[in-house]
Amino acid sequence: MSELKTVVTGGAGFIGSHLVDELLADGHQVTVIDNFSTGRPENLVHQKDNPNLSLIEADITEEETIITYFKDIDWVFHMAALADIVPSIQHPQDYFRTNVDGTFSVLEASRKAKIKRFVYAASSSSYGIPDVYPTPENASIHPEYPYALTKYLGECLALHWGRVYKLPVVSLRFFNVYGPRARTSGTYGAVFGVFLSQKVHGKPYTVVGDGTQTRDFTFVTDVANACITAAKSNLSCEVMNVGSGNTYSINHLVELMEGDITYIPKRPGEPECTYADTTKIQKLLEWKPSVSFEEGVKIMLEHINEWENAPLWTPKKIENATKDWFKYLSK
Ligand code: UDP
Asked: What's the whole-model pTM score?
């Protein structure tokens, strides 16, 4: 495929930066739009001399500012968003503004620039506590907290722009993405960041419940590859799950990572299992993940020094950080 012009919103973030790496490796031109609120320039520092990369500090909600960068663009990957559960409960307006208004603004810029493919980073959290496993795309939608709701509203907008304005939109629902550069600072977040910091500091892993709950842990380079495969396709208005093809218990993760355990209470609104039905993406895009869970965990352990300066989460700190989670989501 010849060289294309691409925009990656949130390209300095965890998933976005891996996508940028893969686009650049394929010889494409990439304009990253990031406001560095949670994205970090370090995530792209290894590309700083790459002439095909432009790094723009801008806020996606400002359409007049960002539209300048959409001229002659072929593919737009909309990865910019605020993540994490607790802050979304505490500051729903920020989440609405970035994840919903921000998506609106990126869609409008894309529509006006007549881009050729729009890939939206959607979330498996839209399914809430699913009643079908593996969970297909037509399962019912039950967002449990504002992060999940705002990501789902963004998906609704994207698909609506696809139907009404014929913008070629593909929405990919990511399941538990992990990999190097997963957030290492800030709020209490995804399990790998929590456990790797505990390991590097020689502290026990804070296992939620009895650790038998399972997650469809999907390696970040597989997710980046799914985004590019979707961009190359001729699909429009399709929603597809992106998952690893399996589901793994927290106990198994701890076995692979080795170390002591301390148990912390189960959190309200959390599914016992996440597990994507990936039949659709296999069929429509012939996409399959290529990094096994065991390989992925090994890669994470090889990158453990990334978590040396990350916050260390103890049971007490987690209890304090998750107070609002228990307060608002307990039935
Ligand atoms: N988890 C855990 N200890 C922690 C944080 C998370 O055992 O300190 C578990 C949690 O119960 C869940 C899994 O790890 O089963 C993934 O949690 P994460 O918050 O990363 O993702 P989500 O629950 O949103 O799928």
From this structure: 0.97
Choice from 145, 173, 191 to test ligand 1 binding pocket (greatest atom count within 8 A of CB): 191
What secondary structure, in 3-state letters, does the chain show? CCCCEEEEECCCCHHHHHHHHHHHHCCCEEEEEECCCCCCHHHHHHHCCCCCEEEEECCCCCHHHHHHHHCCCCEEEECCCCCCCHHHHHCHHHHHHHHHHHHHHHHHHHHHHCCCEEEEEEEHHHHCCCCCCCECCCCCCCCCCHHHHHHHHHHHHHHHHHHHHCCCEEEEEECCEECCCCCCCCCCCCHHHHHHHHHHCCCCEEEECCCCCEECCEEHHHHHHHHHHHHHCCCCCEEEEECCCCCEEHHHHHHHHCCCEEEECCCCCCCCECCECCHHHHHHHCCCCCCCHHHHHHHHHHCHHHHCCCCCCCHHHHHHHCHHHHHHHCC
Question: Which residue segments constitute the domains of the chain, with CATH numbers given?
Answer: 5-177+218-242 (3.40.50.720), 183-215+246-274+291-329 (3.90.25.10)
Is pLDDT of 1 > 70? no
The string of pLDDT tens digits covering residues 13-59 is: 999 999 999 999 999 999 999 999 999 999 999 999 999 999 999 99
Q: Which residue's CA is the closest to the ligand 1 atom numbered 6?
A: 191
> Residues with catalytic annotation?
147
